[in-house]
Each structure stands twice: as C-alpha cells, then as structure tokens.
Amino acid sequence: MSAVVRVLPRIGAVVSTAEAPWWSVRFPAEVHEPTLAWLRDLAACDVSQGTLRSYGYDLLRWLRFLHVSGVPWERAERIHVRALVEFLRETPNPARTGRSPSAPALGSLNPVTGKAYPGARYAPRTINHQLTVLHGFYAFAVDFDLGPLVNPVPAQRARDGGRPHAHLSPLEPVRLLPRAAYRQRVPRTAPRSIPDDAVDRLFAALTCNRDRALVAFYLSSGVRASELLGLRLERIDYGRRTITVVSKGSRSLDEVPASADAFVWLALYLAELGGPPAVEGPVWWTRRSPRRPLTYHAARAVLGRANALLGTNYSLHDLRHTAAARMAADDNFTLVEVQTILRHASITSTQIYLQPRLDDLVAKVAELHERRAAAAGVGPKIPDGYDAGDLAELLGLGR
Fold first, then answer.
1. Domain map of the chain by residue range?
2. Less packed terminus of the chain by CB within 10 Å, N or C?
3. What's the rounded Cα separation, in Å, for the pair 377 and 197?
4. DSSP secondary-structure letter at 154?
C-alpha cells in the first residue's frame, strides 16, 4: 500500500440517467466506463433500479479508496481489499455525523424498546455487501477482458474447495459454509415485534388518518414498507378486504388480506383528500400542497415523529415483524399460511417468528420464581428502611 487511508475524498458521484442502467458512476468527473458496462449488464438481467443505485455507491467508495492509495482500479490486489475492510471497520460512517446533540448515543440501547441505535462505524452487513459488489464487478471485468487478470476479492468456497452447495439435493438441508476471507461475522438477532400495549401507544401517537391507515395496513397485512407505499387505487378490493401489491424481489402482483380497521382508516383518509385524487394512481400522498406521492423517507418520518413522542426507536420493518409474530402465534394459522401471506421464498424465513418474544420470557421467568417462592412459603426479605409496597412495585412483585 502506498498510503494509509484516513478519510475518503468527496470526489466523484452517483448520478441518475434517463435510460438503462438508470444510474452511473462519475469518477473523478467523467462517467467511469467499466462500472457503467457492469451496471448495464445487470440492468439487462432485470436487476432493480434501487439495487443498481446501491451498487453504484459501493463502487464509488471503492474508487475513492483506490484514488487515495494511488492504485488504478484494474491493478487492485487482495491486499487492497483487505485494507478497505480494515478502513471500514475502524473509520466512522459519515452518514452518522452531523447528528443533533440531543440525539441518543450511537450504538446505545433504547431504554423502552431495548433495540440498539446504529453504531458509529460501518455495520458488518455493509462491509459484506461492499465485498459482494466488488466481487461481482471484478468477475465481470475479468470475463470481458477489461483490464484485471484475476479477481482480487476472495470468493466463498465449500470445504472441499468447490462451488458452494454444488450437487446439493433439494431433500437435504442447506449446510452452513465457512465465511469467505474478509467477510464479517453478522450477529443473529431475533425479529423485533412490538408488544400489543406498545402498539396501542404508538397508534395513539399518530396525528392524522393517513398515518393511522398506513400503520394499520402494515400491522394487519405484514407487507413491506416499499410494497405498501407503491399501492395503487385500482388495486384495492374493499369487498374482499385485500390489497394487491408488487412484491419486492419477484415483482409479481400478489393479493394480501388486511384488517377491516385498516380499510376504515383508509376511507377516512381518502375522504379528507376530498375523495380519491383519481380512479387510478398512487394511494398515499403528502399532506402539504402541492401534493406529491409519499416516499419511503416521508413514511419513515411519520414513524419518527411518533418515536420522538414515545421515546422509542421502532422502524417500519418492525411493523412487518409484529404482523408476522401475531399470525405465527395464532393457533388458527399454520406456518405455511403465514409464509404465504408474508410471501417468503423459504419457510425457513418464516420459522424465525416462532421464537418467543423476550418480554414474554421475562414475564414467565418472573412468574416461575414467584410460584416457587409461594410454594416454599418464603419471599424476598424487605430491608429495614424500605417501603414494602414501593419495592414490590419497583421489582414487579405480586403482578
């Protein structure tokens, strides 16, 4: 390495284009043709525009890193990939800078939800995504003879050195493989569903019928955030109480049931608009004039305002987790039915909702110890100087 990278320069940009691949990387000032060729190839393979944009920013970060090191992209080696990983592991994420002094500390736990706030540095998933993008780009560059002779990003291999899951029978379970070089260990966390009483408080904190309709659909249908925001008026069936959304990934039109309450809030919201703005078109609009279709960032702001009032840090995806956990815990639903409603490709993804919630486990453990203490005829001794009623309330005894 010719230089130790401390900070990446703000040169180059990811810009939108009027035609496929819809996004391109300019570096330092002109379009970077090798990356454009790869993005065009992906666009021809029907990769979504959002994915192409994400890949563009990963490529731009890599080009900036090599620029500081004085290494042409086609001469990059494995040591440069390792140096990038070290840089991302140790360097603060610029997206976390400029926060309000009153904002919670980065990486701290929310005292109400128990969820962690984003950390100061790049997350392990972000680093792994960066490596996946670079491996795909260099594989394309090697195949099309654009300059590099070998792929500098190590690939994942099976224990025998072959291709992962080669010749795997569909009757066999998918075997876990060792992580490829430089891939980060990603903590496994259970899905965070929202307790019922907290859902009631969250709903009470919403300030308009549009926001109530949004949350009601998220909680009852389990659709993803972007899927609901893309809902169109002509795809609402009030009689069947279903909505038809474009599923993320497959992009198929799928009919999903929702609660009657969600349709009531939707009707109230549309009435506030003076009726639907058209027979066809987007359902969700901004409240201020001139009205524009509601974006993902605006929907996040809806939840952000409620979080600020409640002192919580719930996310839009937590609402999907909550809907899934409710259905999985209901005896009237089979796991396959929950999988169908959530549109999971594999039932393994649905099985994670069979895990009990931590709040429920805490209550059960407390109840267990209370029963054992009552059976033994003993209880916690209250020290002198403490009020027994106050201490019982503090520790949740006798509930």
1. 13-143, 196-354, 360-395
2. C
3. 33
4. P
Report how far residue 35's alpha carbon sits from residue 41's, in angstroms, rounded to the nearest whole number.
Answer: 10
Token pair, residue 238, equals 């009030």
CB proximity list for 315: less than 8 A, separation 6 or greater: 300, 303
How high is the mean pLDDT in each 10-residue block of the chain (399 residues)? Answer: 73 95 96 97 94 97 96 96 96 82 87 90 95 97 94 76 56 67 89 92 96 97 96 95 93 96 96 73 91 94 95 96 95 95 92 84 85 74 68 61
- Smallest CA-to-CA distance from 265 within 311, 304, 218 is with 218
- Dihedral (CA of 105, 110, 114, 117) sign: negative
E strand map for the chain: 13-16, 23-26, 236-237, 242-246, 253-257
Tokens found for residue 87:
């840089």
CA distances from 82 to 10, 35, 161, 182, 224 (A): 22, 21, 21, 7, 35
180 vs 153: CA distance, rounded Å? 9
Cα–Cα separations (whole angstroms), residue 128 to 78, 153, 372? 15, 11, 48
Asked whether the beta carbons of 89 and 127 are under 8 A apart, the reply is yes
Q: What is the dihedral of CA 232, 238, 239, 240, to 10 degrees?
A: 60
What is the CB neighbour count within 10 angstroms for residue 283?
A: 25
- Compute how many other C-beta atoms are within 10 angstroms of the C-beta atom of residue 206: 20
Q: What is the pTM of this model?
A: 0.82
Reduced 3-state DSSP string for 347-366? HHHHHHHHCCCHHHHHHHHH
Exposed e or buried b per residue across 287-311, where buried means at least 16 C-beta atoms within 10 angstroms of its C-beta: eeeeeeebeeeebeebbeebbeebe
- Find tokens 């009623």 and name the residue: 389
- Name the fold adopted by 196-354: hpI Integrase; Chain A (1.10.443)
Q: Is 282 strand, coil or helix? A: strand
